[in-house]
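Writing this down once: the sequence line spells out the residues, with the fold written below as integer tokens. I am pasting one below:
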Amino acid sequence: MKEQIRKLYAAASVLGLVERGSLDDNFHLLVHRITGKYHVSQLTQTEAGKVETELHRMLVSRNFYKPKQREDVPGMMTAKQQAMAWSLTYQLAELDGNAETTVSQRLAGAVRKTLGITAPPNEPLKWVRKDDGIKLIEALKRYVSSAEKKHRKEQKL
């Protein structure tokens, strides 16, 4: 949990939300808005995951962070395929709302389930070939479609 809190502060710092020694800075206001708690140390793992997801969304939307992409390697997933896979996984994370699982863990799980390749969560696309990348993207599209339907159904209730 200490490591997760450190990551929250690091991301908030990059965004300029942290004022040293202040509990009224924008980071703590964001934490309170999402969880209702005033102190980061009081967060559960699930609540910290929700805050992490929001900070990550802010980093991506402000172009502070782009998922790691490698140069095209013959026979392996292209940079465009990787970008599409990450994008779909972020959409899935937003629709699903399961804050306990990071986006990287989700993508590694999708690779394992869809292709039978066990990849490290920090590099979930490392061993995916170009043809398998097509299969993975199609599976992720189905996952997103299913999550959208479920989300719409829940909104109607």
